[in-house]
Amino acid sequence: MHNKMKKTEENIIAVKSKAFALRCIRLYKYLSKEHNEFVLSKQMLRSGTSIGANVKEAIRGQSKADFGAKMNIALKEASENEYWLELLYESNYINIQEFESIIHDCRELLKILTSIVKSTFSK
C-alpha cells in the first residue's frame, strides 16, 4: 500500500518517537524524584509517550485514512508536548541546557510529522 519512501519515513519517525518517549520518561523520573513535580511533568510524560504510540498504530493502520489520522494525532501530541516542555522551562523546573536539548528533539518530531501528514493528505 505504501511506497518505499513512505516506509523509510515511517521507520525514521518510529525510531525517533520511541527515543523521544524514553527521554520523556527519564525527565519525568528526574522531575518527580528531584523536584517533587508531578503535574506538569505527568502531562509532558503522557503527551511525549503518546507520540510514538500513535506512530506505531499508524504504521499498522488499515488504510491510508487511518494512517493519516493516527499520524495527525501524533502531530497534535508533539505540539502539546512542546507546550509542556516550555512550561517546565519557564517555571524553572528544567534549566536552559536541559530545555534546549529536549525541545530540539520535540521540534524535530514536529517537522517530520508535519511533513508526513501533509504528504499523506495531499495525495
How would you describe what is shown here?
This protein is mostly helical. The chain has one domain (4-121): de novo design (two linked rop proteins), CATH 1.20.1440.60. The protein contains four helices and no strands. α1 (4-34) packs antiparallel against α2 and α3 runs antiparallel to α4 (96-121). The longest helix has 31 residues, at 4-34. The two termini are 13 Å apart. Mean pLDDT is 92; it is low at 1-5.
Radius of gyration: 15 Å
Mean pLDDT: 92
Low confidence ranges = 1-5
What's the number of domains? 1
- According to CATH, the homologous superfamily is 23S rRNA-intervening sequence
Q: How big a fraction of the residues is strand?
A: under 5%
**Proportion in helices:** over 70%
Silhouette: elongated
**Major sheet summary line:** none
Span between termini:
13 Å
CATH architectural designation: Up-down Bundle
Helix and strand content put the structural class at mainly alpha
Count of DSSP E strands? 0
Indicate the CATH topology: de novo design (two linked rop proteins)
Using brief descriptors, characterize the structure shown.
single chain; 123 residues; mainly alpha; de novo design (two linked rop proteins); disordered N terminus
